Amino acid sequence: MISFSLTEEQQMLIDAVHRYAERELRKSMRDADESGNLPPELIASGWELGLIPSSIPETYGGFGEHSAVTGALYTEELAWGDLSAAMNLLTPNLLVIPLLEYGTDTQKESLLPQFCDMEFVPATAALLEPHITFDPHNLRTIAEKQGDTYILNGQKVYVPLAADATHILVYANDGGTTQAFIVENGTTGLTIGEREKNMGIKALPTHKISLENCAVPAENKLGGENGINFTRLLNYSHVALGAMAVGIAKASYEYAREYAKEREAFGEPIASRQAIAFMLAEMAIDIDAARLMVWEAAWKLDRGEDATTEAALVKKFTDEMVMTVTDGGVQVLGGHGYIREHPVELWFRNGRGFATFTGMAMV
User: Is pLDDT of 116 > 80?
Assistant: First the structure.
């Protein structure tokens, strides 16, 4: 039976993350979007919350265990504050979670402790490819084993923090299955392209990367000879993105609701008009439905069950929900919704990207 009661530790964590999102992320959101940069002190204070170390066992320097449910809870709060900052803070999870799930003892001992230090350590993963027929289960980036080395060739896009990351987890086609390879930044054959210019998440640096005969040791294949179950990792990504979509949808809905209560037309608040009231009600229903879908998929992942169907439904529903809700937020504000004085246009631009964010977040 699913319980909707948070543990005491979860409640304390969520309260702390919400305070951080409200007091720091919301205040810097607009300036970060305009300038294209997140203040380093903002990331530093977010790192002090210990979100990623709380997923890492004490054996490797952390102080907790991985829970997709807990991750979904705090990820929603971070995205409610600012999506760019949320994705920036959680980008190291793109390496940490796969390591926790499938890393060999040597890989875990070598890499996990660095994410338990006091300072933010950028690490990332590269999954998306610049092809209209992109299929994460049939990648065009190829990994070919030659002796005790893997040779990687291909191109990736939307790789967050690629320029500064210490390691990049590169997903590639290895004999017909999607596997992952740990590539140190600076490896010969790995080229980090210029920062991409995106419609949304403008404060998050993303890059195109190229791999041309990029050689990595065979021991850098995640999971060693056994490799990984890529579908399960993709499920974790769908849950994370779903939680983020819920977060910014909630932000847009709350702002539009309060605006509708205060904005008067013809002597009464516009919230009393049936068209506006019904739109707000449908927004609230969609958000709650999406949240429950995210929780169910995360719950099944924590139980070690196959959550592929649930995670796929989360991805499908939340991609559409966040567009509908953030568009509704713009509509409720009318002409003001198109003006940067109000944040609903920012949430709308960010929401539009979820259909293409596959693999860019993980909890």
Answer: yes
